[in-house]
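Task 17 of the worksheet. Students: predict the tertiary structure of the chain below and write it out as structure tokens. Keep your answer in the requested format; marks are given for formatting as well as content.
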Amino acid sequence: MEQVLSPRQQEIIGIARLQGRVNVDELAARLEVTQQTIRKDLNELCERRLMTRVHGGAIIASGVENVAYEARRLIAQAEKQAIGAATARLIPNNSSLFINIGTTTEEVARALQDHEGLLVITNNLNVANILYRHPKIEVIMTGGPVRRADGAVIGSAAVDFVRQFKVDYAVIGTSAIDEDGSLLDFDVREVRVSRAIIDNARKVVLVADHLKAERSAPVRIGHLREVDLFVTDTLSSPQLREVCEASQVEVVEVGSFGE
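Model answer:
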């Protein structure tokens, strides 16, 4: 059975994302637990590839390689579920949509299960597995190689497949959002599919929790100006809010969740 992160571990990740690294002694004092408890937490977080141990503490996982997919499911779970539910409410029945790879887009798929008359085209095996059983939702998978790490279908065949369609909505996730509004990811093959998805949808819906604004990734998908709706838990960055306002991106905030 999948084990979720404890509130303390979530807090440790949050501190590390803000500070770049955490120190065992400082965490023990701040969180009012023993150093042994902190070391155990850090070891577990490192085993899940959320963090990397350094002398005296740990740093957040590298910005050139994504956190393991199963581990990403554990980060900001409540926020992702709320984002998924809010996004599903924006998608009408009898519409067509792309859904790309990501743990947040999977939550959108879960929230769409009561919809009717949907045509869902996806390069995400997990999304297909969530929706294919529903008789009033038609699911089409892109072709191409399947990435073992997360069930993403990537590569030129997937890009060519996506380009055959013009759909009502694209629901996209991203690994990181830069302060200038750039949408970023880690795998150029995945990015090419996401780029085709953006180009072939009438309306683009970005789904991303606030931690994506605190991360970095090396490959550019596009820019917030190409997004029509941005559904997030909270938009805490004044720079990103300015970008959204200047680009006429509608922001839907579902609220933040305490630890």
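Marker's comment: Residues 99 and 255 are 23 Å apart (CA to CA). The two ends are 22 Å apart (CA to CA).
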